[in-house]
């Protein structure tokens, strides 16, 4: 089984100002980023993928253990040794509260004790296309997503790409 992936981000923006002499002036911006991964276990390569859309109860959490507790869409266990791409999106745009991302793998990615707060509609995308971040069983392998709302459920989308 071969895995390939392309991760893309794009920002389109238009800034308009009315000027005395020439009238309206528009400054357009189109910033695009694309990272392509081929099948394999080296730089710019991936061979492990896990994705999940989850609903987290009020004050609840979900833990993603990249060292062996995840299965792909075919039911195969995904044991990551390197993380190349992480994307977590807070899909509950109408929810009034946040979700918090933490865990020992995020500590390894960002240094220190990571606690990243995502507002409704917010997301975190992290890409390390070359060597990736080392996933180490029990010390750098979990991502914890906590619903900060005490009563309402939160929906999140999570994607992990890497090598194993």
- CATH architecture call: Sandwich
Helical residues, percent: under 10%
Q: How much of the residues is beta strand, in percent? A: over 45%
Oligomeric state of the chains in view = single chain
Number of domains: 1
What does this structure look like?
By secondary structure, this protein is mostly beta strands. It has a single domain (41-163), classed as Jelly Rolls (Sandwich), CATH 2.60.120. Helix content is 4%, strand content 55%. The protein contains one helix and 14 strands. It has one helix spanning 104-110; strands spanning 5-19, 23-39, 45-46, 48-56, 61-65, 70-71, 77-78, 82-90, 99-102, 116-118, 123-127, 133-134, 142-147, 154-163. Strands 4, 8, 11, 12 and 14 form a five-stranded antiparallel beta sheet that branches.
């Amino acid at each position: 089984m071969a895995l390939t992936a392309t991760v893309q981000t794009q920002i389109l923006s238009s800034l308009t100002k009315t000027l005395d002499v020439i009238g309206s002036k528009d400054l357009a911006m189109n910033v695009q980023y694309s990272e392509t991964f081929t099948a394999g276990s080296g730089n710019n390569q991936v061979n492990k993928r896990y994705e999940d859309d989850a609903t987290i109860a009020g004050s609840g959490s979900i833990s993603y253990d990249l060292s062996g507790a995840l299965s792909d869409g075919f039911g195969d266990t995904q044991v990551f040794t390197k993380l190349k791409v992480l994307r977590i999106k807070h899909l509950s745009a109408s929810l009034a509260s946040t979700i918090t991302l933490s865990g020992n793998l995020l500590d390894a990615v960002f240094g220190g004790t990571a606690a990243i707060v995502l507002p409704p509609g917010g997301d975190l995308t992290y890409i390390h296309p070359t060597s990736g971040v080392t996933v180490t069983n029990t010390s750098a392998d979990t991502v914890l997503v906590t619903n900060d709302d005490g009563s309402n459920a939160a929906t999140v989308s999570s994607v992990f790409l890497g090598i194993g």
